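Exercise 7.
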Amino acid sequence: MTSDAQSRRPSPGRGTVLAVVAAALVVVALVVLLDFRRAGEAPPADAGRQADVAERGREVMPFDLERSTHRFSKTGTGGRQTVTVDEPVDQRQVGLVREHLRAEAERFRRGDFADPARIHGAEMPGLAELRAGAARIRIDYRELPDGAQLDYLTAEPALLSALHAWFDAQVSDHGRHAEHGEPTTPVG
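Solution. The predicted structure, written as tokens, is:
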């Protein structure tokens, strides 16, 4: 093309640029929503619900939510729930995390999921199934240098689905206090 022909080509107007930018934003939003659906994860709860969950969490969990992180990693046979203190030198917080998760493991083994119900509501996804099937879920507690973890193991597909739905609901409800961890090797 000659420089004469190039100079006669109309340049994109401001409206065209804005339309392209708007279209790009729509595509990005759709990709984010599809990514949540493809991963089988719930999108984050709204800020009001997350604030309510954090407030109820402070009543149930003895450690500081602002100084710790929950991670929920799914596996093909269950999953791993990890709570770590953001600054491991805070041994008081580490002790509170360990105390809480150790007690929760004992309650969960008996089918007592009252604490998650108090925080997230009785209709929390997966909760009813976990209560009913607790005897068929192995729950192992382990201390970490900066907190503790619970490993969940089940051979039942329905309980596995319930456990994964329960993990997703916790990440959604806890917002910045929780995250999906990398998939771990199956516990076992």
